Amino acid sequence: MVVGELAESADLLIIGGGPGGYAAAIRAAQLGREVTLIERGGAAGLGGVCLHVGCIPSKALIEVAGAAHRTGELSRAGLQASGVAVSLPRFQAWRAELCARLARGVGELLARGGVRVVHGEARFNRPDRVAVRTPDDRALFFEFEHAIIATGSRPIELDGLPFDGARVLDSTAALALEETPASVAVVGAGYIGLELGTALAKLGARATVVEALDRVLPSVDASLTAPVLRRLRALGVDLRLRSTAERIDGDRLVVAAPGGEERVEAEKVVVAVGRRPNTDELGLDAAGIRTAASARGADGADGRAPACATGLIPVGDDMRATERIAAIGDVVAGPALAHKATAEAAVAAEALSGMPAAFDAQAVPEVIFTDPEIGTVGLTEAQARAAGMDPVVATFPLAASGRAGTLDERDGFTRVVADRATDRVVGVHIVGPHASELIAGGALAIELMAAPGDVAATIHPHPTLSEGLREAAALALGHPIHVSG
Amino acid sequence: MTSLEFRLPDVGEGIADAEIIAWQVAVGDHVTEHQDLVEIQTDKATVVIPCPATGVIASLSGEVGDTIDVGSVLAVIEVAEAEAASGEAAAAERVPAPATERAPAAATAARLPRGQLPLAAPTTRRLARELGVKLDAVEGSGPHGRILREDVEREANGEAPAAAAATAPAPAPTPAPPGDVVPLRGVRRTIAHTLTRAWLEVPRIVDYREVDATALLRARASLRQRALDRGEQALAKALTPTPFVVRAAVLAAREHPYVNASIDLEREEIALHRHYNVGIATAGPDGLTVPVVHDADQRSLAEIALQIVELATAARDRRLRPDQLAGPTLTVNNFGALGTWMGTPIVRPPEVANIGVGAIRDQVVAVDGAPVVRPTMVLSTAGDHRVLDGDTLAAFVTTLARLLEDPVLLFEDLR
Q1: Which residues, in sequence order, are CB contacts of B351 under 8 Å at separation 6+?
Q2: Is the minimum CB–CB distance between A316 and chain B shorter than 8 Å?
Q3: CA-CA distance, A7 to A9, in Å (whole number)?
Q4: Catalytic status, residue A146
Q5: pLDDT digit string (tens) for A198-240?
Q6: Are A24 and A123 contained in the same domain?
Q7: Model confidence over A305-324: pLDDT tens digits?
Q8: Same domain assignment for residues B212 and B334
Q9: What is the pLDDT of residue B157?
Q10: What is the pLDDT of residue A471?
Q11: Is the pTM of this model over 0.90?
Q12: In terms of residue numbers, what domain contains A186?
């Protein structure tokens, strides 16, 4: 690094080009700010983990694996197909092109907003200044008026199982597989682990899921996981609860189980035990920011497992950590979800531009692309009770849905939780096909304070899975059509 | 952490529910015992209920404008003393301290605490931020207290809430007259409802009686001087005509028990009360309230006088407790303090009498055939004709007038 360097001035500097960072850049540009965005992957890295090694590629893999698997399942409905197979190399080429195209799209949006994208890794060296190390090892300095930290998170590594990209994989490497392993051990039954495990099982791998806790998907209410567990069993996924992955021994993964040491067949081991915020190499001390030693954010407070234990940046409702610097996405408390980062991005950009913005979303939906999918938003019955409400809970079973029948699906439900005192929907929980799409209706109902009567009186098209929400709301009122109240 | 469920206390006989007028605390607030918790409206008056314990407000039941039943949960308070014992729960609530130039208040979790969902849509919440309006201060006029954009705008402009206007259908054919519309809320609404009922229900008779107040004023002057001599300025000040009338009314009612009574037409009964609880009509900031001097027959004149002052002060400060409003058996209304000479008090069922006290003023009266100037006071005593006939009411007033014209008789019974 050069000493006595000359700094460029930056009006609004954004560190990280993921779904938080690029959304903040676009919103700030709309507000007339001159935006400089630092992305360590350069223009090709725009979109971040979500676009390149997270949401998008994983959904692409789940889609292809699911489609292949379903052709076999629909044989009883008359579908005759043979020799259906997934070519992972072709999938990977298609996926790479898809991600590159989407990243180019982000780049075009940023260019249209006049956002300058700088390739490099940023580090604060003063409360108003960062140094950026470029790929060719030059140092650039920026003195900023305002900055937004949107550096995201990375997978947590286990001591006994360091990632090597060949045998022990993080989610990124697992999504880049060119060949379906004969056997795979997935460590961690959170949503990333279960999504990957399910997809690999559908591609033909013998899958084992190892989880230290006594349940899967600890971030959602246990009642939502039963259909997923039944499905995992049907797919032949071997679930080892209360078990800890210890080390590799030959072609096996050694697991400490309640009954003693077990050896699990594992050509590949995928470790998905959580994510850690990328805040340790940002020079936050120099910025005047201290991360939380043991952060228990909004997530911990509502009974969900914290996304990670340490390294979160404390922020206010306006996402600011200091007068000049805001932080958004996985580096602050709350679920590590792209849509939460995007929502926070607008707040940060507006707040730093002098608008009275605040992150006051009443509910952050969570979607899990297991089989069946889970979509959940707002309060569960237990959370509603804990909040002092007298909840009305109504559950409409998928088996009563005509459209679900045409999909040959019957395991799942739509549940509405409403507060009796204020006559409003406070939670919607959907388990079933396309729950990830359907849950937005629940989020809308919650934010707009819909009464169950409002939802029930809103015409939902037939024959669709979306009718489940209307039926559950009608059930809450005591007059459903397709089940007996 | 221990949760204390605080239920709406039984605020007095006959009161089954109360309307929430204003929460004085919010969920998450640290509160101390006796701190104001909520302002409620019974069918008698507005009262402030204090917090029963020190701790943190976990939840509040009901929105402003909701009616809640006696005995139902009003608030849940996490009691502070348990805080230390539950490390896990406490840690969950603790917010990491910011090592920044920001005010500590800003460093909260980035999401609203669960269960504290404001009844407002996102654009309404945004508008509130833009206009600098705190949502928990806004009275929602939508269904179940939902806060609408108009409510936020109204709050920002410092206008009165329109909740009542929204629920009370306006007479459609008549165009609204020019001028301000004041919604009927709180104490005013209660006064309107209870007095409509009183007026329609009670066949009222009024006895107007002139009282020579010469002796009363002399007695009052002597007692005042005694109080001042003893350094009891407060008592001296409290010795208005009202405590004299209260004591006289109690003594007279003992001789005429049908005045200290109530009527129940359903059961076809008249209850003759053994307690003498005298309601004191009091002008409060929100309208008329009637706090009660309980067991007035057991109290000295000085005690009555001081208590009337205490009740009037509490009413003025909106600090009346429910028990201070409960169970009147008879009412005294000293409208003379306002300069009124004669009045027409309204009997508030189930009571059967209301004694109006006029201003004392010098009048020319005939004494032994000659015009003489005497300080004179008119009593306007209203009675419920279902219980009191003209003669029974007149008999009571005659006794009352005699006691006031010769106030030494007030001390005949030295209790």
Answers
A1: B262, B279, B328, B329, B330, B331, B384
A2: yes
A3: 6
A4: no
A5: 999 999 999 999 999 999 998 899 999 999 999 999 999 999 9
A6: yes
A7: 343 447 999 999 999 999 99
A8: yes
A9: 83
A10: 96
A11: no
A12: 168-271
The verdict on residue B377 lying in a domain is yes
Distance of CA B400 to the CA centre of its chain: 27
Instruction: Report the CATH number that the domain containing residue A194 is assigned in CATH.
Output: 3.50.50.60
Share of chain B above pLDDT 70, in %: 83
Least Cα distance to A444 among A466, A421, A428 occurs for A428
Per-residue pLDDT at B153 = 87
Q: For A360, which of B61, B115, B125 is closest by C-beta distance? A: B125
A340 in any annotated domain = yes
Same domain, B289 and B394: yes
The residue length of chain B stands at 415
Q: If DSSP codes are grouped into helix, strand and coil, which group holds residue A391? A: strand
The owner of tokens 């032994």 is B368
Residue of A296, A339, A380 to mutate when probing chain B, most B C-beta within 10 A: A296
Residue B114 has pLDDT above 50, yes or no: no
Q: Number of folded domains in chain B?
A: 3
The residue from B69, B389, B406, B413 that is catalytic is B389
In this structure, the answer to whether residues B253 and B159 fall within a common structural domain is no
Examine the domain organization and report whether A29 and A95 are in the same domain. Answer: yes
Q: Are B194 and B184 in contact (CB under 8 A)?
A: no
Copy the structure tokens of residue A347.
């707040």
Q: Are A317 and B92 within 8 A, CB to CB?
A: no
Number of domains in chain A: 3
Among B353, B415, B413, CA closest to B389: B353
B360 found inside a domain: yes
A25 and A148 share one domain: yes
User: E-strand spans in B226-267?
Assistant: 261-264
Q: Among the options A434, A462, A479, A482, which is catalytic?
A: A462
Task: Record the tokens describing residue B228, joined without a space.
Answer: 């001042």
Q: 3-state DSSP call for residue B339? A: coil
Based on the fold, state whether residues A188 and A248 are members of the same structural domain: yes
According to the model, what pLDDT value does residue B7 have? Answer: 80
Cis amide bond preceding A463, omega within 30: yes
CA-CA distances (angstroms) from residue A45 to A21, A92, A101, B268?
12, 17, 11, 88
Whether residues B365 and B222 fall in one domain = yes
Q: What 3-state DSSP class applies to B197? A: helix
Question: Are residues B137 and B113 part of one domain?
Answer: no
Under 8 Å between Cβ of B52 and B77: yes
